[in-house]
Amino acid sequence: MNKLNNRSELIALRKECAGALQLETKRVLVCAGTGCVSSGSMQIFERLKSLMEENNIPVSVELAHEPHGESVGLKECGCHGFCEMGPLVRIEPQGWLYTRTKLEDCEEIVDHTILGGERIERLAFQKDGTAYPKQDEIPFYQKQTRLVLEHCGQIDATSIREYLGVGGYAALETALFDRTPDEVIDEITKSNLRGRGGGGFPAGRKWAQVRRQTEPVKYIVCNGDEGDPGAFMDRSVMEGDPHRMLEGMMIAGIATGAQEGYIYVRAEYPLAVKRLRRAIAQAEELGLLGDNILGTEFCFTLHIARGAGAFVCGEGSALTASIEGKRGMPRVKPPRTVEHGLFDKPTVLNNVETFANVPLIITRGADWYKSIGPENSPGTKAFALTGNIVNTGLIEVPMGTTLREVIFDIGGGVRGGKKFKAVQIGGPSGGCLTTEDLDLPLDFDSLKKAGAMIGSGGLVVMDEDTCMVEVARFFMHFTQNESCGKCVPCREGTKRMLAILERIVEGKGEEGDIELLLELADTITATALCGLGKSAASPVVSTIKSFRAEYEAHIREKRCPAGECQKLKRIWIDPALCKGCSKCAKACPVNAISGQIKQPFSIDLSKCIRCESCISTCAFHAILEG
Known about the structure:
The structure is a single chain. The protein is of the alpha/beta class. Helices cover 39% and strands 15% of the residues. It has 24 helices and 20 strands. Strand 6 and strand 7 form a beta hairpin. The chain is globular, with a radius of gyration of 27 Å.
């Protein structure tokens, strides 16, 4: 690819790429997101490629630079989102989605679909006896509005030419040639785009603050750390549509006067790092990154900084310290990052999803963006659905969509037909929502009033068999383990709270423990150094608020109502059902079961380790647990 020297050359290349896409009259898009890759999607990709070549089918693995007639496009695309049903293969132009595709299905796909134009019914998604061959018809997708994720699953995730072919870098072109930096900031401000990393701070205000700084050197930093358990929204954007995010960062550079940017990605995201490196190299080759971009005075370079997976590095000042090669620890504020950020210079710090929204706003306008969702939280939000839910995966919905719609209409409800109990939203910094909150709109302000937060967008669904005390213990263990240790409230307070929670789930809770947990939570929230520390106790506070009776049962009755806490499980033998066969006694590894043959046996609970081997051994179902 030759370097683009001006606007007209970019427009011509975009037109050329769009034409090359049209010559791919059939397209087979194999999901190459991390989830499907781990399930074997790349073996499916290679097998399809081999079979097409064997059948003399003209196949385009990369978008042709000089097209020579029609071909079948076989592409590595980003995450389709329907992770529960992977590996996924999308067939264009029909819009068919093949689910749970196996290597042995490849010959049938080539023979019947690519050559014969026929749909393979058994590979279509099915629910309650109804087949949904087209992706847009599947209930999982019907209530979604995929804007940030619109290209994920639709184009080659590794190709700048395909991104250009669907209008890529048009927003950069507009920002460079048709708008002043102040006009770009005004458009972002007018859109009321709020940071998708969890804080919800207005992006336009942050950009304006950096632009006002007189320091000549400024930085654009993208937070791709995404440390919340169960969250993978940013990863999917970096893997599936990296150029959209890069374009947003470049526009931020134009608006604020920054000439250098950093993308901070955790090392546990190797595929995202690989795709980002490729995207940066492609943009540099075309001259969309580097010096005098498109013949203008704008210069911009991008670097990737890999983190070691520390949760605290999701906090702004800790993240910039980590990029600088220092230990990732928050610092006292002020000064803020917009004044003294990376290398002590004014810095715009937004997350992946925030930057990915920017090109849409520049090309389609702030008024269009504000027409989606509520006025104070416009646009869409990507969520990762995990836990005890039928349709695990990645979704994107308008802000203000209710929790009920997300869990039951899109997510398909709770797995196994069990009752919905709660959802943890916002990860370790978020809170717990219950059945009373099912009609709560998912937006920044509504969640804040409910004592929760969107966070980066992780949704962990829990059913009736989930112990909420154990949930609180899990998140407190995560937070305590990830504490940087710089401030006493977080370092010592979370340790103390974890010790109390561990006692409670082991059946050693005492009267006053709940009150002590709440007192410690208040102290940590009021005095911790950084935002992560201040929100560390949120899962505990929210579970006590909604499920105090479960805490009391653990403490007063030494009983786990959900039956999940191992140390509180009670195993006993029903004498009316026991035949005295002695099989359970022989299976017990600690000799906790005794009795006489043909007489009911009994369990010494002081010896019992709750391994449940006796339950699986008993043929008469005489051993009960609860």
